Automatic annotation (TrEMBL):
A GO molecular-function annotation: oxidoreductase activity
SUPFAM superfamilies according to UniProt: 2Fe-2S ferredoxin-like, CO dehydrogenase ISP C-domain like
EC number: 1.17.2.1
Keyword Signal: no
Organism, scientific name: Inquilinus ginsengisoli
CDD domains associated with the record: fer2
Name listed for the protein in its UniProt record: Nicotinate dehydrogenase subunit A
Length: 152
Protein backbone atom coordinates (compact mmCIF):
# COMPACT_ATOMS: atom_id res chain seq x y z
CA UNK A 1 0.00 0.00 0.00
CA UNK A 2 1.08 3.54 -0.69
CA UNK A 3 2.25 5.54 2.30
CA UNK A 4 0.07 8.39 3.50
CA UNK A 5 0.90 11.86 2.29
CA UNK A 6 2.08 14.15 5.06
CA UNK A 7 0.99 17.77 4.69
CA UNK A 8 2.17 20.50 7.03
CA UNK A 9 -0.92 22.60 7.64
CA UNK A 10 -1.18 25.46 10.10
CA UNK A 11 1.91 24.21 11.93
CA UNK A 12 0.74 20.60 12.32
CA UNK A 13 1.72 17.53 10.30
CA UNK A 14 -1.45 15.95 8.94
CA UNK A 15 -1.79 12.67 7.05
CA UNK A 16 -3.96 11.79 4.09
CA UNK A 17 -4.36 8.56 2.10
CA UNK A 18 -5.06 10.64 -1.03
CA UNK A 19 -3.32 10.11 -4.35
CA UNK A 20 -0.52 12.72 -4.73
CA UNK A 21 -2.29 14.16 -7.79
CA UNK A 22 -5.41 15.03 -5.78
CA UNK A 23 -5.98 18.77 -5.57
CA UNK A 24 -4.88 20.11 -2.18
CA UNK A 25 -8.31 21.73 -1.80
CA UNK A 26 -10.04 18.35 -1.62
CA UNK A 27 -7.60 17.00 0.94
CA UNK A 28 -7.95 20.10 3.12
CA UNK A 29 -11.74 20.03 3.06
CA UNK A 30 -12.55 16.33 2.86
CA UNK A 31 -9.70 14.70 4.80
CA UNK A 32 -8.74 17.44 7.26
CA UNK A 33 -12.10 19.15 7.77
CA UNK A 34 -10.66 22.58 6.99
CA UNK A 35 -13.50 24.44 5.30
CA UNK A 36 -11.89 27.89 5.11
CA UNK A 37 -10.79 27.28 1.51
CA UNK A 38 -13.85 27.18 -0.74
CA UNK A 39 -14.60 25.31 -3.96
CA UNK A 40 -15.57 27.93 -6.50
CA UNK A 41 -14.56 27.14 -10.08
CA UNK A 42 -12.13 24.28 -9.55
CA UNK A 43 -10.15 25.67 -12.48
CA UNK A 44 -7.74 28.10 -10.85
CA UNK A 45 -9.73 31.14 -11.95
CA UNK A 46 -11.75 32.52 -9.02
CA UNK A 47 -9.46 32.46 -5.98
CA UNK A 48 -12.05 31.07 -3.54
CA UNK A 49 -9.79 28.10 -2.73
CA UNK A 50 -6.76 30.21 -1.81
CA UNK A 51 -4.21 29.09 0.76
CA UNK A 52 -0.72 30.28 1.60
CA UNK A 53 2.21 28.04 0.69
CA UNK A 54 5.34 29.26 2.46
CA UNK A 55 3.53 32.59 2.84
CA UNK A 56 2.69 32.98 -0.85
CA UNK A 57 -0.89 32.92 -2.15
CA UNK A 58 -1.73 29.71 -4.03
CA UNK A 59 -4.89 28.26 -5.57
CA UNK A 60 -5.40 24.94 -3.83
CA UNK A 61 -7.87 23.61 -6.45
CA UNK A 62 -5.09 23.30 -9.03
CA UNK A 63 -2.23 22.43 -6.67
CA UNK A 64 -1.60 18.67 -6.39
CA UNK A 65 -1.29 17.71 -2.74
CA UNK A 66 1.93 15.86 -3.58
CA UNK A 67 3.55 19.18 -4.58
CA UNK A 68 3.23 20.53 -1.03
CA UNK A 69 5.80 18.11 0.42
CA UNK A 70 8.36 20.06 2.41
CA UNK A 71 6.30 23.26 2.32
CA UNK A 72 4.16 24.95 4.95
CA UNK A 73 0.49 25.37 4.07
CA UNK A 74 -1.60 27.97 5.89
CA UNK A 75 -5.37 28.08 5.62
CA UNK A 76 -7.80 30.67 6.91
CA UNK A 77 -8.09 28.58 10.08
CA UNK A 78 -4.37 29.17 10.69
CA UNK A 79 -4.70 32.95 10.80
CA UNK A 80 -6.87 33.68 13.79
CA UNK A 81 -9.84 32.58 15.83
CA UNK A 82 -13.18 34.21 16.54
CA UNK A 83 -11.80 35.45 19.86
CA UNK A 84 -8.39 36.43 18.50
CA UNK A 85 -8.87 37.45 14.88
CA UNK A 86 -5.90 38.21 12.65
CA UNK A 87 -5.63 41.99 11.93
CA UNK A 88 -6.69 41.41 8.31
CA UNK A 89 -9.71 39.39 9.43
CA UNK A 90 -10.60 42.14 11.91
CA UNK A 91 -10.35 44.79 9.20
CA UNK A 92 -12.73 42.84 6.93
CA UNK A 93 -15.20 42.47 9.82
CA UNK A 94 -15.01 46.16 10.71
CA UNK A 95 -15.48 47.29 7.11
CA UNK A 96 -18.04 44.56 6.37
CA UNK A 97 -15.91 43.54 3.38
CA UNK A 98 -18.22 40.73 2.29
CA UNK A 99 -21.74 40.14 1.14
CA UNK A 100 -22.31 36.40 0.64
CA UNK A 101 -18.79 35.80 1.93
CA UNK A 102 -17.80 33.06 -0.50
CA UNK A 103 -14.79 35.01 -1.82
CA UNK A 104 -13.71 36.15 1.64
CA UNK A 105 -11.24 33.32 2.23
CA UNK A 106 -9.34 34.24 -0.91
CA UNK A 107 -9.58 37.99 -0.34
CA UNK A 108 -8.18 37.70 3.19
CA UNK A 109 -5.37 35.31 2.34
CA UNK A 110 -4.38 37.32 -0.73
CA UNK A 111 -4.28 40.44 1.44
CA UNK A 112 -2.12 38.71 4.04
CA UNK A 113 0.30 37.66 1.28
CA UNK A 114 0.30 41.19 -0.17
CA UNK A 115 1.00 42.93 3.14
CA UNK A 116 3.85 40.51 3.85
CA UNK A 117 5.77 41.85 0.84
CA UNK A 118 4.24 45.33 0.61
CA UNK A 119 3.21 46.63 4.06
CA UNK A 120 1.92 49.95 2.66
CA UNK A 121 0.23 49.16 -0.65
CA UNK A 122 -1.35 51.88 -2.73
CA UNK A 123 -4.90 51.62 -3.97
CA UNK A 124 -3.46 50.49 -7.27
CA UNK A 125 -1.27 47.83 -5.61
CA UNK A 126 -4.33 46.42 -3.83
CA UNK A 127 -6.43 46.34 -7.01
CA UNK A 128 -3.56 44.65 -8.81
CA UNK A 129 -3.09 42.03 -6.08
CA UNK A 130 -6.80 41.19 -5.85
CA UNK A 131 -7.61 41.30 -9.54
CA UNK A 132 -7.81 37.53 -9.91
CA UNK A 133 -9.94 37.09 -6.80
CA UNK A 134 -13.52 37.24 -8.01
CA UNK A 135 -16.41 38.65 -5.98
CA UNK A 136 -19.73 38.11 -7.68
CA UNK A 137 -21.71 40.22 -5.19
CA UNK A 138 -19.88 43.37 -6.28
CA UNK A 139 -18.56 44.19 -2.80
CA UNK A 140 -15.34 45.63 -4.21
CA UNK A 141 -15.68 49.05 -2.54
CA UNK A 142 -15.93 47.49 0.93
CA UNK A 143 -13.16 45.01 0.14
CA UNK A 144 -10.83 47.87 -0.83
CA UNK A 145 -11.76 49.72 2.36
CA UNK A 146 -11.04 46.55 4.36
CA UNK A 147 -7.55 46.20 2.92
CA UNK A 148 -6.82 49.88 3.55
CA UNK A 149 -7.98 49.45 7.15
CA UNK A 150 -5.71 46.43 7.58
CA UNK A 151 -2.75 48.59 6.55
CA UNK A 152 -3.04 51.22 9.28
FE1 LIG B 1 -9.73 27.39 -7.08
FE2 LIG B 1 -11.67 28.82 -8.20
S1 LIG B 1 -11.85 27.15 -6.83
S2 LIG B 1 -9.53 29.19 -8.24
Amino acid sequence: ARADIVVKVNGAEMRSPADPATPLLHVLRNDFGLNGPKYGCGLGECGACMVLVDGKAARSCVLPVGATAGHAVTTLEGLGTVDAAHPVQRAFIEEQGAQCGYCLNGMILRTVALLAVNPHPSDRDIREALRFNLCRCGTHVEILASVHRAVV
